[in-house]
Amino acid sequence: YANVDPASDGFEIVADYVAPGVPSTVGRYSLDLFGPRAVAAMRSGTTLVVRDRDAELAPEEGGAMFAAIGVAAIVCVPLVKDGALRGMMAVHSATPRDWSDAEIALMREVAERTWAAIERARAETDLRRLNDELEKRVEERTAALEKANEELEGFTYTVAHDLRTPLRAMVANARFLEEDFGDAIPDEALDLARRQGD
């Protein structure tokens, strides 16, 4: 399996499963080194099938690179998503091999199922990350709202406290006016003064 950097021609073989005595192909590579046939197949989303490297590929057409990593025959299935090569999955042999149609179909099916599992895992990871970010935002906004409520309560208390003293004086003065000059005050003004005291 290889991850492809869509911004370049580079790819990294992340893991391989090899028979005893067969060298590993894990590492970083440039797709161009595998020749125009491999590049065209991978970029178009077409399965690359090479049954005999020496008979099918000249050294300058990728044969030298396949030989350098010990690949004499290969089936490589590309993953093209949104118009870009994203990954590759391959089975290869150190000796020429006449891949059957059933083997090639099986490789395509395994690759498709693997891509689906990878995309599902990435989507689940993205969803968990987004949920974590959302929870963090909710916590931050809740904390900000609680702080704003505390500040509002403090302001309300201060305003109520600061207004209480002048209001008491106004109510007391209204009562004094009513007691001392109630008969001289028009009924409408007296009613207004009484409401101020409530």
Q: Which features would summarize this protein structure in a list?
A:
about 200 residues, rod-shaped, six-stranded antiparallel beta sheet, alpha+beta
Overall strand count? 6
Query: How are the strands of the largest sheet arranged?
Result: 3-2-1-6-5-4
Unreliable stretches covering 5 or more consecutive residues: none
- Tell me the structural class: alpha+beta
Gyration radius, rounded = 40 Å
* Share in β-strands: 15-25%
What's the story with the biggest beta sheet? 6 strands, antiparallel
Query: N- to C-terminal separation?
Result: 83 Å
DSSP summary: helix tally: 5
Structure commentary:
The chain is 57% helix and 17% strand. β5 (73-81) and β6 form a beta hairpin. It is rod-shaped and about 125 Å long. It has helices spanning 35-44, 53-56, 63-68, 101-181, 187-197; strands spanning 2-4, 10-13, 27-30, 48-50, 73-81, 84-93. It has a six-stranded antiparallel beta sheet with strand order 3-2-1-6-5-4, with helices on both faces. α4 (101-181) crosses α5 (187-197). The chain is α+β, with helices and mostly antiparallel strands and 198 residues long. It is built from five helices and six strands, in the order βββαβααββαα.
